[in-house]
């Protein structure tokens, strides 16, 4: 592993999301300067403007010169760019544009933070990196095409690449987690809307645990040219998470659970819920990851126990609810 003092500068592309915040915090904690890149400057200023180690840049993925300019001077690019859930066809298209710009800028390493979608249905339990990639959904095929572009770019024009796959995630203020409504509901003592079934053992990674792993990978040359997994802290059911959150908040659980038939019905009026239907198999037959290869490479990985992660997520929801009340008062 490379020494922190000799590690090159890292750029976080699509930095405004939860993963970007986690990785930025880990880079800052390691005493490393970094660049955050997004389409709009204001969200980046709001989140990272107070960190003297953060350099803020914007880019336009449709402009090759803009991509290259945003990546110039970086050793490592971490790709976190999201797309609207109903526009997954953009994933490989945007990945190709980014790859072209990274190579033009002389970037040496690229980490794509990916998902379990390319695997399709789990054929083994747990799933390691040798599992067949046979997605049966459109979103899985688009994520597979994105991954292939990254993996096929390894060793070309001086670029080394890595795909780090994560399971579903949660954490303080992580609004794009489908557990976010649970913490909001518990904080308010209100009903939480959930997508079921909620009694199947599932895996979630606590988002603040992701940053330190990515920071280490940016200075681990032997990690590249492959796929690695980062698993959660074991498995847990959604019901257990909800019951714990409501208990910690001092409320009885109030849950409204929508299964696949209701998702189809609600999807007639809500585009996001309509898009969730094809991925519903991940709730009935979850993909649970084996990250023994990552641990063999990096050593022990700190993972926040679910009890602690739920408590911290609830505290953030309580704080946000209090802030909203103060503003409206």
Description:
The chain has 329 residues and is α/β, with parallel strands linked by helices. The chain has 2 domains: 4-172 and 204-234 and 287-303, NAD(P)-binding Rossmann-like Domain (Rossmann fold); 180-199 and 235-286 and 307-319. It has helices spanning 18-29, 41-48, 64-71, 90-105, 138-152, 180-188, 210-217, 238-249, 260-267, 271-276, 281-284, 292-298, 306-328; strands spanning 10-13, 34-38, 54-58, 76-79, 109-114, 160-165, 168-170, 192-195, 202-206, 226-229, 235-236, 255-258. Strands 3-2-1-4-5-6-10 form a 7-stranded parallel beta sheet, sandwiched between helices. Helix 3 crosses helix 4, helix 6 packs parallel to helix 8 and helix 8 (238-249) packs across helix 13. The chain is globular and about 55 Å long. 41% of the residues are buried. One of its GO terms (cellular component) is cytoplasm. It comes from Trinickia terrae. This is NAD-dependent epimerase/dehydratase family protein. InterPro entries: Epimerase_deHydtase (IPR001509), NAD(P)-bd_dom_sf (IPR036291), NAD(P)-dependent_oxidoreduct (IPR051783).
- pLDDT < 50 stretches: none
Outline: globular
Which class best fits the helix and strand makeup? alpha/beta
User: Would you tell me which CATH topology of the largest domain applies?
Assistant: Rossmann fold
GO cellular component, one term: cytoplasm
Protein name: NAD-dependent epimerase/dehydratase family protein
Domain NAD-dependent epimerase/dehydratase: 13-220
GO molecular function, one term: aldehyde dehydrogenase (NAD+) activity
């Amino acid at each position: 592993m490379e020494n922190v003092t000799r590690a090159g500068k890292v750029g976080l592309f699509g930095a405004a999301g939860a993963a970007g915040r986690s990785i930025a915090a880990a880079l800052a904690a390691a005493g490393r300067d970094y660049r955050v890149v997004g389409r709009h400057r204001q969200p980046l200023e709001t989140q990272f403007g107070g960190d003297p180690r953060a350099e803020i840049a914007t880019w336009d993925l449709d402009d090759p010169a803009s991509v290259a300019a945003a990546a110039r001077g970086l050793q490592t690019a971490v790709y976190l760019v999201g797309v609207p859930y109903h526009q997954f066809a953009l994933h490989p298209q945007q990945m190709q544009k980014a790859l072209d710009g990274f190579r033009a800028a002389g970037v040496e390493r690229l980490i794509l933070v990916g998902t379990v979608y390319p695997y399709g249905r789990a054929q083994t339990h747990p799933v390691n990196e040798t599992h067949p990639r046979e997605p049966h959904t459109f979103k899985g095929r688009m994520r597979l095409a994105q991954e292939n572009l990254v993996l096929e770019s390894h060793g070309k024009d001086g670029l080394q690449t890595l795909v780090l796959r994560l399971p579903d995630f949660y954490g303080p203020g992580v609004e794009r987690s489908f557990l976010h409504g649970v913490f909001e509901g518990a904080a308010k003592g209100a009903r939480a809307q959930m997508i079921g079934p909620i009694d199947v053992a599932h895996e979630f990674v606590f988002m603040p645990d992701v940053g330190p792993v990515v920071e280490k990978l940016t200075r681990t040359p032997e990690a590249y040219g492959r796929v690695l997994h980062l698993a959660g802290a074991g498995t847990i059911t959604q019901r257990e998470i909800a019951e714990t959150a409501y208990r910690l908040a001092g409320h009885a659980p109030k849950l409204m659970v929508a299964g696949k038939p209701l998702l189809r019905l609600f999807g007639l009026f809500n585009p996001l819920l309509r898009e969730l239907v094809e991925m519903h198999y991940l709730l009935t037959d979850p993909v649970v990851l084996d990250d023994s290869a990552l641990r063999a490479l990096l050593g022990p990985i700190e993972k926040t126990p679910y009890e602690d992660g739920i408590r911290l997520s609830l505290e953030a929801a309580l704080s946000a609810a209090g802030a909203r009340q103060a503003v409206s008062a």
